[in-house]
Amino acid sequence: MKPTILVLGGGIGGVTVAKQLRNEMGNEDGINLARILVFEKEKSTLFAPSLTWMMVGKRKEEQIRHPMDGIEFGGVEIVYGEIESVDPDTHTVISGGNEYRGDYIVISLGAEKRDKYDLNRFGHNFYTSEGASDFYKELSQFKSGNIAVTVSSLPHTSPVAPYEAALLIEDTIREKGCRDAAEITLYTPENRPMPFANEKISAAVRRLMEEKGIQYRPKHQLKGADENSLSFSDPTKGSAEEAYDLLAYTPKHTCPALLEEAGLTGESGWVEVDSKTLQTPFDKVYAIGDIASLQGHGKPAIPMAGFFAEVQARVVAHNIARRQAGKSPDQTFEASGSYILDQGTTARKVDGRFDSDDLSLSNNSLFRHWEKVLAEKAWFLKHFQS
Ligand SMILES: Cc1cc2nc3c(=O)[nH]c(=O)nc-3n(C[C@H](O)[C@H](O)[C@H](O)COP(=O)(O)OP(=O)(O)OC[C@H]3O[C@@H](n4cnc5c(N)ncnc54)[C@H](O)[C@@H]3O)c2cc1C
What we know:
CATH superfamily of the largest domain: FAD/NAD(P)-binding domain
Strand order of the largest sheet: 5-2-1-9-21
CATH architecture of the largest domain: 3-Layer(bba) Sandwich
Number of domains: 2
Distance between the termini: 31 Å
Structural class: alpha/beta
Number of helices: 9
Strand content: 25-35%
Helix content: 25-40%
Bound molecules: flavin-adenine dinucleotide
CATH class of the largest domain: Alpha Beta
């Protein structure tokens, strides 16, 4: 009997796992040795790393979105609709009132994102395409005032994105000729920039913000908002009211409730998996990407990032193919990778092992910027048929 693999979520992790399974399970067009069902509520998939470009008008929605059905070949089928429940004991998923049973489950549902303090009434959630595009509409009319980039809570996906957003906004308004009439401030509960990295890298990013005249307010926990100001708990003054004219913010991230209901979450509130195999406590049930919390990792947590979702997806798919062929899994996840901090026309790259201090930051260069552009183009070319 053909094995069935249920892939929950068609974002970065889910699409990568489906493609890798297709390649490794012996599927071709016409000969499908495995059934790969991808469960996705949206008809199209968005490449979120490009949202920071969208918020400054460098990308339009159609450039960073692709219809989901572009992955539907070589034994991959999409089940559209909201997943209602998962039973990891019986490998069963309910979606659209129908029950699907598989031999393996790979969960890559990403974090659930919600607005805190009704922030959507006052500003723009740049972690969505709508928020990024609406922010740009206001930025393109902007002449003077205070622009606030606010991290509304921790943890959030892509700890680099708020810094990149502030730098890209700075670049854009300088190009527009109104830099001198603007104040840009980044507020975050973090102690220092990109705390997953070592102190040297944090200090370099902080210097970069200073050079660009971007105000940096760490240890600022958002407590409330109205149409003119944001309230924070402030480490020195106790509390602070900060005025703004234009606001971009990151939403609150939580693990999808259906995974908690399924008994898949641990003390961390996220799906705890073996840090090497990415298997949950349930046999043949794996979790990858933003929802996965790696148990037994040296550092508190590796950042939520698309490149880790991709690496994890490949490891899991490969090991499922091995298990299915009666062989032992022979790949493990290593937290090595790289992250590019773009500034508009140049960029810097953080590279190395994210579960250690063994990380380096490259010099600022045009080449790194184009590396990020190429990664975006490669994403769609590699995974989707047009
Ligand atoms: C602004 C921004 C910039 C970023 N920049 C970078 C970067 O430069 N580099 C980098 O590596 N990463 C970056 N990231 C992070 C990266 O996008 C995420 O880490 C990655 O998308 C996580 O992949 P995932 O598969 O875990 O989840 P997602 O890609 O979020 O996919 C989850 C999928 O599950 C679907 N889903 C959820 N619930 C259900 C349900 N109940 N039923 C059916 N479908 C459901 C969703 O619709 C979605 O398609 C950035 C993210 C943002 C927001």
